[in-house]
Structures are given as C-alpha cells and as structure tokens.
Amino acid sequence: MAINVDGYSNKKELQLRNIVLNTRPHIVILSETCTDLHRTIYNNQYTVIGAAGPSDGVAAMIRQDVQYSISSKTTRIIVLQLDNLVTCIGTYGPTEQTADKQKAKYWEYLAKLIPTDKPLLIAGDLNSGHEPTQLRTITGIPNYIRLQRLTDQHGLNILPTAPTWISKRSKDQKPSRTLDRILINTTAGGDDKVILDWENAPADHAVLTYKWTLHTIDYNQGRPRNIHSVRDSREQTTQAWMRFRERLRLHFRKQKPLLPRQQNANQRLWEQYRKLKGEEGLTLIDETEVEQGRRLIHTSKERSDSISGPTATYWGDRSGHKSH
Known about the structure:
Shape: elongated
Helix content: 25-40%
Strand content: 15-25%
CATH architecture of the domain at 2-210: 4-Layer Sandwich
Order of helices and strands: EHHEEEEEEEHEHEEEEHHH
Structural class: alpha+beta
Distance between the termini: 87 Å
Largest sheet: 6 strands, mixed
Oligomer: single chain
Radius of gyration: 38 Å
Strand order of the largest sheet: 6-7-8-9-11-10
C-alpha cells in the first residue's frame, strides 16, 4: 500500500486506521510525511519508521508479524529487506520544479539500490506523471523520462493505474496526473492489479493498494540446505558411531513403558459375560468345545443389548418373609 499523506499528523493517522486495519497490508509506504517517525500505532499492530525534511520525507508502516531489516533510510528513500527474501523500496521523488542536479542525484541513488537477485517492489510518490502539463514549469529532464530509463535499464515493470492526483486548482476536481507508482521486477499475474481508493485518501492523492503474488520464490530459498552425506562404513569413526547408536536404541527401548494390550471386540464381550456369570477364573474358550463357546458368546451378546452393565444379587432377609 502507498499513501501520500501531505504531512503526517495524529489526525491523519486516525483517518487511515480503518483502511489499514481492514486491509491489513504487510507494508504501507507513506510519502511526503514532513516529520521524523519512529513509533508503534494501532495498539502495537504496526510500527512506523521514517526520516523527513521540512518539505519531503518517507516512512514505512510495517505490520508487527513481518520480519524486516532497514538497509537504507534517507528523507526520500527507505529500503527494507523482508525475511531476507524480498526488497521493498519506499520513496518520495523530487517534483518537476526541483533543480535538475538534485533530480539526477536522486535517480542515480535509486538505481544503485535495485537488487539483481531478489524480488523487488518500489512504491511511493515518484512525481513522474506521463500526462502533459501546461501550468507547471519542468526543470531539466522530465521525471517520467527518467523513470522510463530506470525501468528499461533494470527490467522493471510499471503497474498501470488511473491518475492518482487531483490538482487543488482543478475546477472539475477530477484526477489529472499519475504521480504515485508501483514498480516490480517480476511479471505481473493476471489477477495482480492496483486498487485506487479515494474515499479514505488523507490528501489530494489516492491510496494505492497492491496484492503482490510472488511465483519465483522457491520454498527453500533463504533456508539452510540439507546436504545428504554418506559415511564410509570402514572408517573407525563411522563404526564407533554405529555402535553408540545401537546402544542408545537399546537403552531407550528398555526405558519405554510397556502399554497394556487393548482387547478386541470378542475379548471385551467374553469379559462382560464372565462378569455377568461371576466366573472370572475361566479361560476364554476351551479348545475341545469351540462350538459351545461360540454359542455362549452369541447368547451373551443378545443379553448385553438389554443390560447396560453387570448386576449384583442382593440377599437381604433370608427368613422367607415377603416385603410389601
């Protein structure tokens, strides 16, 4: 997510609360903050870090469950490494009226930060609209031409978006220029698209939301490699290790408690029958009377359907008196 806040304040922080917490993006790039930031917000759900000057500034709002490291931080560019797998660059580019020397310095520094071995996402207000303008003076080379040179040189893709900025002097209050951009060095999928939100915009720039689906990161990338190695059985170290492993196996086998064997259905039925008859000293089935044992089991099974458990006979008064 990329947002030009046109001056960060507590009021705008509260204004962004709904869209941020409802969408829950991993990273939010804030441009034109105009104030240094290092705080946790929204009940410690996000951390905001950034540097700024009197008329510029860029910051990153990072979700708390994201593992990150900051490799560079200036008033116009902040570089984050996410899980040591993805590089995310947040930026606030100089305007067209800025001196050509300063613009050239900015674009050269941005080009040096682009990695060649990791997925990359660049987001923010680059002030590089391709639409023609007649009301503003452009100093030196237009920013959009510099942006095209950057993408051609490093193989970046500019995600297409509608105009993201509304001029305060516009009479119809319609978006007129595409100043905010999102660039990636991977191929955009068919479902990947940038969503513009004007309803929750805190300034005259739209809120850009992009769901980035990475298809080029292997599961084992960045993880320790499990190298399979085969030991020579003739080596003394290998033989000693095999003997030690066998002793450990026997030791833990002795320590393992012997669990009682579970009875099968026939055994449980026979135990129930013995409890009903009070003949718990009998064996399961006499080998010479197999058929008789089967009949006894089936007979007891029919009785057990009506009897939920063992019963006991109570012998009270044996004098022969009947109780009423």
